[in-house]
Design a protein that fits this description.
The complex is a heterodimer.
Chain A: E1 6-7, E2 11-14, E3 20-23, E4 29-34, H1 39-55, E5 60-65, H2 68-78, E6 84-86, H3 91-95, E7 100-101, E8 103-107, E9 112-118, E10 120-121, H4 122-136, E11 151-152, E12 155-156, H5 164-174, E13 181-183, H6 189-195, H7 209-216, E14 226-230, E15 235-238, H8 239-249, H9 256-266, H10 273-278, E16 283-290, H11 293-296, H12 311-326, E17 349-351, H13 362-365, E18 374-381, E19 385-388, H14 395-407, E20 420-424, H15 426-434, H16 439-450, E21 452-453, H17 454-457, H18 479-483, E22 485-486, E23 495-499, E24 507-511, E25 524-527
Parallel strand pairs in A: 4-5, 5-6, 16-17, 20-23
Antiparallel strand pairs in A: 1-9, 2-3, 4-8, 7-12, 8-9, 10-11, 14-15, 16-18, 18-25, 19-24, 20-24, 21-22
Chain B: E1 2-4, E2 27-32, H1 38-52, E3 57-62, H2 72-81, E4 84-88
Parallel strand pairs in B: 2-3, 2-4
Classes of the chains: A alpha+beta, B alpha/beta.
Chain lengths: 532, 91
């Protein structure tokens, strides 16, 4: 493949005599990327060396070897006169986008690419020799072209070997990080992170520049881009700072777009993350992932979906919380003032088992396409509770059970409640699906089954909690007004419904709400960036 | 080992506390964060303040919701109209 007039990256490499060679050189240059264990490189080395002997007086001609030990072997076995530069760190091979060796690059005196080809192609070499002869004004070497095959494919460059390419990409990005570096010295890095108050109480992965750079390979967004302003300190959260916290949480780079979308969602005014974190109630952002990315990340949506043991589930939620702590400044006992807290404050993130649901998935209900990946955050109690019903065999009877369980949210006498999350298990979903009930019908039944007369909801001597008369707009209520039935939820749509959980178990789970709606928190969905 | 700083790197602005006069004067803001029965506490506080400092005016304010920080314009109004503020809740 030929390319023309591309500006090539400058570099400095040492030859086998430890002499530094700098590119560009001010003269035409021929750069030959090779590795010792590549037969096609072996085939090509005599040609490269012959070209060097013929044109070396006018052009800078270098072999660039990818393996320190192999470089010396190549020189010795081929008795090379061409300088062999050591690129065993592979940084130049990476910068030049070398995928195949040998790759031959002809450069102009100011470092522009004039010609490039990979592998061995006799015609390419004949054209190259002719061009270099023309450039140099020197005679072309005598080559017995018939002794060479017409073509031979090259080998994979070491710079694109699995694991190496990622490391090189990370190193290249690491040089561009702008956040402050902290030198830990001889101190234990894990203890250092604890002592600096940077953890949630569990050990974190030390965010070395290399790891942060690796995390940044998970997104195409500029590391300097401000994703959100995080309360309580109203601190700007850049992609880079969020990557640091994602590293600490244990995320892989492919999880990072979910973290970014979740941060965007929690930082919206309607979600009110300040309130969710600060409340004496034990609330947290409950993070639900929908769409194709669930499967790509291997997220758990089945058995133990709300529990532990899955890296993506555990670390995405943890990354969001660490970012709120370390960037936003929300720390327990400081601005986070929950009376009890809850274990879900470490992390609460899971996926919906869309394929096992008889209904549209959550993100489609919210206006997204089914093939879009979406994160939804809800400001809810930081832990689920379970409702058992192993006996109901109709949708009506089962939804009554679910309603009775939901009525306990916050307090049974507190009606006009806002958003909650009902996680229906596969077995329960099957029972409801057999009767072909829609989500709307499930919600309608929950509202019916939880409706209580006003008189039962008033605070009294038996139970001081409840809804005062004035909240109903009543002063001297009539007997009929006291019998007026009030559903649990302000509106049916406040009952968010998804399907998740193991195949076995006639239980469903609920996440109770916090202060919901415009005076509290409103759930928010955000599309997740697709990174091929 | 070197790590990348995970925190907000800004240095907070340090502000000196307002000068303490030793006794309240002018007006005192009572900010009710709008939790249930917050008014009971605030009414009692107002009674006590007026009994103890008869020359001081007590002004009442209320957040629209306890679940969010006080809106910017409310904070500004309180600062402009008062020399002192007591923010209180009740559960």
């Amino acid at each position: 493949m030929e390319k023309t007039q591309t500006e090539l990256p400058a570099f400095t490499l040492k030859d086998l005599g430890a002499v530094e060679r700098r590119f560009p050189t001010g003269r035409h240059a021929l750069l030959c990327f090779v590795k010792e264990d590549c037969p096609t490189c072996g085939l090509t080395m005599p040609l490269i060396d012959a070209a060097c002997r013929a044109f070396g007086a006018k052009l800078d001609m270098w072999a660039i070897g990818q393996d320190a030990e192999g470089n010396a072997k190549l020189v010795e076995s081929n008795r090379l006169s061409i300088p062999m530069l050591d690129d065993s760190a592979l940084s130049v091979s990476f910068a030049y986008g070398i995928e195949i060796v040998p790759t031959i690059v002809l450069a102009s005196p100011d470092g522009a690419e004039l010609r490039r080809f990979e592998g061995f192609d006799r015609a390419d070499w004949q054209n190259l020799i002719a061009e270099v002869a023309r450039i140099s004004g020197l005679a072309a070497p005598k080559i017995e072209w018939d002794s060479y095959p017409a073509q031979r494919p090259g080998c994979g460059s070491k710079s694109v070997e699995p694991g190496v390419a990622e490391r090189l990409e990370a190193a290249a990005r690491g040089e561009r990080l702008t956040a402050r570096r902290i030198e830990i010295g001889a101190q234990d890095e894990f203890e250092f992170m604890f002592e600096r108050g940077l953890t949630d109480g569990l050990p974190v992965v030390p965010p070395t520049p290399e790891r942060v750079a690796w995390m940044l390979t998970g997104t195409r967004r500029d590391p300097r881009e401000i994703v959100a302003v995080l309360p309580p300190n109203l601190a700007p959260a850049s992609v880079e700072k969020l990557a640091v916290n994602a590293v600490m949480a244990g995320c892989r780079p492919e999880y990072f777009p979910v973290v970014l979308a979740a941060i965007e969602a929690v930082a919206t005014p309607e979600f009110n993350i300040h309130g969710v974190m600060a409340t004496t109630w034990g609330a947290t952002p409950v993070i639900i992932v929908n769409g194709p990315i669930r499967r790509r990340l291997g997220m758990n949506m089945g058995m133990m979906a709300l529990g532990y043991g899955n890296r993506a589930n555990a670390t995405i939620g943890r990354a969001v919380k660490l970012a709120l702590r370390n960037i936003g400044g929300a720390r327990p006992g400081d601005i986070e003032r929950s009376t009890f807290g809850a274990i879900g404050k470490f992390t609460t993130c899971f996926a919906e088992w869309e394929e096992r649901s008889p209904w549209e998935p959550l993100h489609v209900e919210r206006g997204f396409r089914k093939d879009e990946s979406v994160v939804t955050v809800l400001g809810l109690e930081a832990g689920s509770r379970q409702i058992a019903d192993q006996h109901s065999r109709t949708a009506h009877a089962l939804c009554t059970s679910l309603a009775l369980g939901l009525e306990a949210c916050w307090h049974p006498k507190q009606h006009f409640s806002g958003e909650v999350l009902l996680v229906v298990s596969p077995e329960h979903a099957d029972t409801i699906a057999r009767d072909k009930w829609s989500k709307a019908r499930v919600r309608e039944r929950i509202q019916q089954a939880t409706a209580r007369p006003v008189r039962e909801l008033l605070p009294d001597q038996e139970c001081g909690e409840g809804i005062p008369l004035k909240a109903f707009g009543l002063e001297n209520p009539t007997p009929e007004q006291l019998e007026h039935r009030v559903p649990k939820f302000r509106k049916p749509e406040d009952i968010n419904i998804i399907v998740a959980g193991g195949e076995a178990g006639k239980f469903s789970a609920i996440f109770a709400g916090w202060v919901s709606g415009p005076i509290g928190s409103i759930s928010v969905s955000r599309r997740i960036e697709e990174v091929p | 080992m070197q790590i990348v700083d995970p925190t907000d790197e800004r240095v907070p602005i340090r502000r000196a506390l307002a000068k303490r006069s030793g006794a309240p004067a002018g007006s005192i803001a009572l900010l009710d964060i709008s939790k249930p029965r917050g008014d009971v506490l605030m009414n009692r506080l107002e009674e006590r303040l007026q009994a103890r400092f008869p020359g001081v005016e007590v002004r009442r304010y209320r957040k629209p919701t306890f679940a969010k920080p006080a809106p910017e314009d409310l904070r500004r109004r309180i600062a402009e109209e008062n020399g002192f503020v007591i923010e209180a809740l009740a559960d």
